[in-house]
Design the sequence.
């Protein structure tokens, strides 16, 4: 099949115009020709990217759809695609023309570099240097290596292998600045003697060597490993000269002084590029279901097949898989500000259950209510309740956050806060805390947590009860969060169906054994991952999963095998693009992650202005201008009451590999010159609660209104001996904000984990 015929068939497949015969020809070509399959994947990636662009572009998204004629619909889809491709081509040609017209000619480049396939890096040039040729460095060239390995051919026969995460700047032909990371340097001739590596702590001057430099994350020490020859340690000011370290020796140095002798680590440094960098996990927070939406899903019959090649029957348009997502949990009248008709009865949406009225007042007593002007005052032995109407779901953790005070402070008081179910009522709590504020003071952001089990999920709904013992208790600013710990990997074990009855070849198609969410579910959690479990192991074919949002009358096509679909054994899971509007947010869990504390996702796009949105901008120091932050969707871990954290399993640890972790950390502020309102972050790799490596900092990694990647690496040869080698590797990201103050939130953009291994070091 010629390339033009292949591309024509792929285009017709993506447009839904392919006949059965044409599909059979395409499927045969893709199964036999790896180059054809690579072409198919490339067109699928372009198709999905253009579709996401069209969904975000208001001019395209609002194009009318004429449902009376399928042909017209297909023509409109092709027109949109061709228009976007044409626009992209015009922009590309214009950019190339501008670059040719305005870029100065390339200078004599000083050094060349290569990266292992799959590496991720950015290259910038500064100073008066002209832009070098591709794959080359000039004076002032700076490479930030987030993932993978890079090789540098430096002047005077100097070679370097640098492992991510690392930052390296070429100062001149004899000097490099290694700001972070691990690097091996080999000076291959006397011409390179005097070559210098500048670290944040000292200068390392070559005297004819091969040596390794490792800058441990969060340490003021440099680990220096001299494998041959010798190096000298100089001070950064150029005035101090330290020791000469001769091979073979490995030492930890602080400034110009050796502080510790290290175990020889020659095998910790790579001497060549690996064949490739494996992507373990990527999360951009752009995918998921929306709250309070009705979904209908159908699937091509060619999308899934069993290992014997038998096709799944698909999910038809006539009988789609339908379900509705639940709304975000809300407390009505959370600050007690609504409908103040009397100061002697329970506020609107709350019910007094003890027979004696509660108080609800605006007295200007000190300290005042924490939000607005009102607070709820509950006398001794009185209780008010609110029934949330949300069915309790097994595997869900519910968290209530509120402010509790002793105001007015006539007598000591003890507040009682409960979760209860509608089956037994407020007198049989599912969870309870007692809070004792000091006289005439408030305890901010107190948290009550309840994790539901199957015995709680009887169909009953959730309620909140507020009571007081002894003196009078005050309540204000209530908030509620729910996170769901559904993990498709915990579905039943894979089954195997190698042959039919009597050892005959298997000709029966795979069929579905379960759905999650259940068909016609009316309260599916919006942070769930739609999952299908088949009766036997399956594999991807070629086709689409169509996810229609009936509430918004929009549809997303997912090509099987793309980044939005995952297949493990007999379990298929997938997520559509989230598609939050500019300035919108969705509070609750993130699919695939287990979270604690407040967590949400939001779209910070603001077109050079701030949105007036309760979750994005207000008068506090902790929030601010969002115009230049990346996205379009970021995750946000709150700090109110309990610093938020999210964690996720990455699968079993593989031996002999180096794992690299990077996370984009966002910083927000009203004033671009103000970097103080920052919650701080901690990123960990764990195994069975044992910390393998971590990075933490309370200092913003970049300027306000920006997202900056931070990260670290970990070598699986350092795996603790008392842990099982098949134990799951877990990534955990936490906010370091103070639970007693509103330090804002920790904003996250792009999480990536890669690994390299299998080469001689």
Sequence:
């Amino acid at each position: 099949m010629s390339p033009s015929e292949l591309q024509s068939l792929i285009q017709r497949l993506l447009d839904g115009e392919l006949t059965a015969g044409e599909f059979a020809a395409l499927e045969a070509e893709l199964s036999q020709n790896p180059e054809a399959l690579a072409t198919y994947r490339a067109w699928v990636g372009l198709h999905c990217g253009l579709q996401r662009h069209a969904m975000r572009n208001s001019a395209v998204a609002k194009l009318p759809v004429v449902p009376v004629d399928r042909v017209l619909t297909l023509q409109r889809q092709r027109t949109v695609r061709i228009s976007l491709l044409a626009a992209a081509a015009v922009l590309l040609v214009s950019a190339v023309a501008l670059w040719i017209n305005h870029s100065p000619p390339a200078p004599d480049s000083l050094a060349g570099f290569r990266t292992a396939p799959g590496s991720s890096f950015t290259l910038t040039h500064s100073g008066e240097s002209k832009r070098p040729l591709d794959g080359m460095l000039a004076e002032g060239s700076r490479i930030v290596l987030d993932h993978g390995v890079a090789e540098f051919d430096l002047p005077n026969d100097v070679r370097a292998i640098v492992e991510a995460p690392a930052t390296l700047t070429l100062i001149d032909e004899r000097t490099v600045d290694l700001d972070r990371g691990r690097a091996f340097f080999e000076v291959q001739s006397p011409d390179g003697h005097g070559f210098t590596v500048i670290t944040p702590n000292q200068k390392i001057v070559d005297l004819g060597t091969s040596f390794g430099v490792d800058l441990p994350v969060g340490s003021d020490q440099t680990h220096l490993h001299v494998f041959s020859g010798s190096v000298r340690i100089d001070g950064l000011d150029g005035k101090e000269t330290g020791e000469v370290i001769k091979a073979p020796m490995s030492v930890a140095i602080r400034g110009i002084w050796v502080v510790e002798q290290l175990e020889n680590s020659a095998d910790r440094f790579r001497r060549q590029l690996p064949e490739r960098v494996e992507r373990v996990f990527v999360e951009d927070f752009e995918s998921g279901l929306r709250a309070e939406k009705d979904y209908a899903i159908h699937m091509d019959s060619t999308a899934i097949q069993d290992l014997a090649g038998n096709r799944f029957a698909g999910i038809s348009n006539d009988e789609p898989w339908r379900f509705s997502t639940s709304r975000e949990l809300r407390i009505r009248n959370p600050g007690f500000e609504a409908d103040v008709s009397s100061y002697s009865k329970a506020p609107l949406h709350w019910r007094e259950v003890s027979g004696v009225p509660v108080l609800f007042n605006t007295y200007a007593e000190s300290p005042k209510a924490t939000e607005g002007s009102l607070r709820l005052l509950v006398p001794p032995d009185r209780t008010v309740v609110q029934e949330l109407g949300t069915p309790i779901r097994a595997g869900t953790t519910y968290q209530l956050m509120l402010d509790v005070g002793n105001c007015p402070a006539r007598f000591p008081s003890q507040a009682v806060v409960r979760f209860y179910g509608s089956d037994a009522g407020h007198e049989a709590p599912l969870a309870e805390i007692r809070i004792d504020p000091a006289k005439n003071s408030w305890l901010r952001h107190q948290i009550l947590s309840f994790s539901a089990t199957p015995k709680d999920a009887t169909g009953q709904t959730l309620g909140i009860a507020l009571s007081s013992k002894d003196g009078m208790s005050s309540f204000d600013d209530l908030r509620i969060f729910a996170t769901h710990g559904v993990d498709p990997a915990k579905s039943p074990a894979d089954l195997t169906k190698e042959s039919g009855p009597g050892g005959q070849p298997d000709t029966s198609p795979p069929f579905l054994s379960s759905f999650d969410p259940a068909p016609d579910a009316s309260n599916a959690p919006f942070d769930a991952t739609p999952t299908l479990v088949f009766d036997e192991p399956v594999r991807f074919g070629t086709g689409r999963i169509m996810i229609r949002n009936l509430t918004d009358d929009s549809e997303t096509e997912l090509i099987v095998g793309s980044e939005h679909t995952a297949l493990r054994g007999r379990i298929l899971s997938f997520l559509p693009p989230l598609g939050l509007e500019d300035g919108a947010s969705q509070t609750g869990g993130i699919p695939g992650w287990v979270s604690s504390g407040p967590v949400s996702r939001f779209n910070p796009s603001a077109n050079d202005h701030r949105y007036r949105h309760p979750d994005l901008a207000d008068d506090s120091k902790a929030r601010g201008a969002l115009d230049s932050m990346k996205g379009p969707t970021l995750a946000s871990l709150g700090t109110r009451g309990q610093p938020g954290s999210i964690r996720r399993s990455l699968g079993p640890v593989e031996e002999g590999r180096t794992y690299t972790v990077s996370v984009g950390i966002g910083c927000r502020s009203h004033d671009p010159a103000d970097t103080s309102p920052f919650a701080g972050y901690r990123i960990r790799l764990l195994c069975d609660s044992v910390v393998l490596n971590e990075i933490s900092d309370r200092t913003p990694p970049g300027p306000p209104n920006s997202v900056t990647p931070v990260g670290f690496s970990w070598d699986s040869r350092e795996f603790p001996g008392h842990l099982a080698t098949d134990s799951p590797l877990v990534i955990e990201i936490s906010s370091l904000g103070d639970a007693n103050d509103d330090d804002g939130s920790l904003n996250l953009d792009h999480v990536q984990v890669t690994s390299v291994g299998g080469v001689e070091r």
